[in-house]
Prior knowledge:
Elements: H1 9-30, H2 38-62, H3 73-98, H4 109-126, H5 132-160, H6 162-168, H7 174-197, H8 199-227, E1 239-241, E2 244-246, H9 251-272, H10 278-285, H11 287-306, H12 313-345
Antiparallel strand pairs: 1-2
Helix pairs in contact: 1-2, 1-9, 1-10, 1-11, 2-4, 2-7, 2-9, 3-4, 3-11, 4-7, 5-6, 5-7, 7-8, 8-9, 10-12, 11-12
Amino acid sequence: MADAAGRLAFLDGFRGVALVFMVVNHTARWWMDGRMTWPRYRLIWITLTVAAPTFLFLVGFCLPLAVRGGESLGTLLRKFGPRGARIFACGLLLNLLVLPDEPILAGGVLQTIGLAIIAMAPALWLLQYRAGPAALLVLAVAGYVSFVLAFPHLEAFVGRHPMVGLVLLYDFPPWPWLSLVLIGLVLGWHWLQTYRRSPEAGARWLLALTGVGVALLVAFVVYDWWAVTPVRLGLSRDFLLNRHRTPRGASLFWVFGLLFVGLGASYWVMEARRLRLRWLVILGQTALFLYFVHQVIALMLVNHWLGWRFNQWPRFWLANAVFVLALVGLGWAWREARPRLRTWLTRWSPFVRTSPTGSAS
């Protein structure tokens, strides 16, 4: 189910799901106070392991949709470089407005996404060669493995150089999270080649990927049962650097299982069953704008200025439902106003161009 611009609704819908999980992750930390209960702790961990990995994975998975194939490296860099730079700048602006206690250059999800879009330009160019996909997968695995091996040294480095650590190794840093983007890129490229030959073959490809995802989730549960993992849904099982997690061991089964199952489920619901979840599509199409705005509202307005708290679960979920509905409205308004705003901006700014994916971010 593609629209006039060639967008695939299930990818926008899956991105919209990730945004909802991101919103709940932030409100669970900012709209509740007092004692950290186990339900709240598990909610934070689950939403964290769904939201940001999905955003990063979809960066890679969707980029092949924006190219025809055969472009030169220079063309790809000119196409994706400005887009990545703008998203990186949005991350710095978010630090300035929402996180004034941290350095403006501190890393964040938006900075990693911006760098990933730029870094994926040469990766897209390499996909034109027969050995390109395999080489990129090897590079992705090597990037993660090198992080695992270097982790004890990185802990020490961050302890000695905390400011540098906040810039280079904070939140979801490029190393090792660009590995996830690379895997998404290769899988997205393979799926697109199959889908262009036959939508039915593309559906079977996603069905097979969903089967792999289910197997990974089963492996995650079986491992925890076998190893008698004390805290199965929690940060203690992962690498912790600068108070932020990177999946380790069986957590990789969990993260990739959710990604593959989520991708297949989104396709089945929105393409095979043709359920037009327009509100999710709006959230997905305006995800960059809403990622920025929802933090200003949730942290600065509700938490700091108004001082509201929703410590009882019924009030918490009702507040989140109202908040998501408001974000859908804001996303719709932004999507409608953005073309006119872009037309106005292009009259004086050479850096504003149409997104290479056609996204209303």
